[in-house]
Amino acid sequence: MVTGDVGPRIMRYGFIGGQNLFKVFEDQAGKSGEPVWQLRGGHRIWLAPEDAERTYAPDNEAVDIEVHGGMLTATQPVEPSTGLQKQIAVKLAPAGTAVEVIHRMKNSLPFAIRIAPWAVTMLAPGGTAVTGFPPRARHEDVLAPSNPLVMWAFTDLRDRRWTFLEKYLVLRHDPREAAHTKLGHFNENTWGAYLLGSDLFVKRYRADATKTYPDMGCSYETFASADMLEIETLGPLTEVKPDAWIEHVEHWSLHRGVIVPDWTDAVLERVPGPLLEG
Hints:
Radius of gyration: 18 Å
Shape: globular
Number of strands: 19
Oligomer: single chain
Helix content: under 10%
Distance between the termini: 25 Å
CATH class: Mainly Beta
Order of helices and strands: EEEEEEEEEEEEEEEHEEEEHH
Strand content: 35-45%
CATH architecture: Distorted Sandwich
Structural class: mainly beta
Number of domains: 1
């Protein structure tokens, strides 16, 4: 479900008659026109690196909705404070749950800017997020580092919501834990998944190792607070000329009846692993 009242935002992704995998802040639902940025919920497009003014530009106005050729496109007016115009296009597969989500940003300023697209999905509380590292190997076989693992100043590695495995990184949402936590990493085969009950949301993105990524080289980040958990992908830093667009594409899928009895490498390879490789 894509709203036209504000955004661009995708506010629901779930099975018909089933739960919404996305977080919605009910006290903000149905409102618009606020002077400052609202959490609101759902899925959005941001700009990176994170900046207190440019990133948090309000997206509280109505968007233009077009449906053409099986694709829905939501386009906001140019943001007065940033000179950017943001757009999300959604294309559903003819059958099944696959969705192609195209994020675009246009530079309407009279000069070039260096930014990266940032696709942020806010997920309903009570689930568990997982992402995968690049292929692992023995020290004797691979001497070079494989990827960054980036932390923020508010991240405490003693936090029990995190589980560090050989091939996977797991973050469990706990509504009783008020402290914020966040980690990021890079993987050419970037993916993140979120299990809520027995519904598994998966999003994938193909990163380019030859390009420079924000936040010390992250193509993927995950964040948790008491209210929700976010899984995020980032595009490369790009010099965007006046009137030019940049684009960032995610591929989503939703799977039901997924059971993860234990968050270990062996179980993850056996249960959601085939879904993530498909």
